[in-house]
Amino acid sequence: MNSVQGLLAASVISIQNSCFIYPACQNCFSRLILDSRRFNCLKCGCTGEAKDASYRYRLSLKIADTNDLFDITVFGSCLDPFFGVTAENLQRYIQDLNQLSGETNTESSTRALVQAVETCFIGKRFIFGV
């Protein structure tokens, strides 16, 4: 699954999701189920305290080369250079920002992040390993 079969030069047409960071199982990288105090991985059964959950990037894109449109998802630390921090640190910054501003509704910080990601990616050409 991690081996690159080929390279594709394509432009980003749109961002397909607004949730770029997810709590990830350290064993299998599946999305964790979080409640206020615990996490649970439905795939491998890993459990722990919610405060110890790790986070990972997941960016779903619609891209186009000269002939075709593709839906792709880019995972993990290869996105660190674009965001400037690890997913773990970005999640921490967002939580701290929401706490400092007294935000109970995280919609405004999510909207700002989506806008920044769209500005960074849409209309830009990248080489994707597929």
Automatic annotation (TrEMBL):
InterPro entries in the cross-refs: DDIAS (IPR043522), NA-bd_OB-fold (IPR012340), Rep_factor-A_C (IPR013955)
Ranges for domain Replication factor A C-terminal: 9-95
Transmembrane segments: none
Pfam families (alphabetical): Rep_fac-A_C
GO CC annotations, alphabetized: cytoplasm; nucleus
GO BP term, example: negative regulation of intrinsic apoptotic signaling pathway in response to DNA damage
Protein name according to UniProt: DDIAS protein
Lineage of the organism: Eukaryota, Metazoa, Chordata, Craniata, Vertebrata
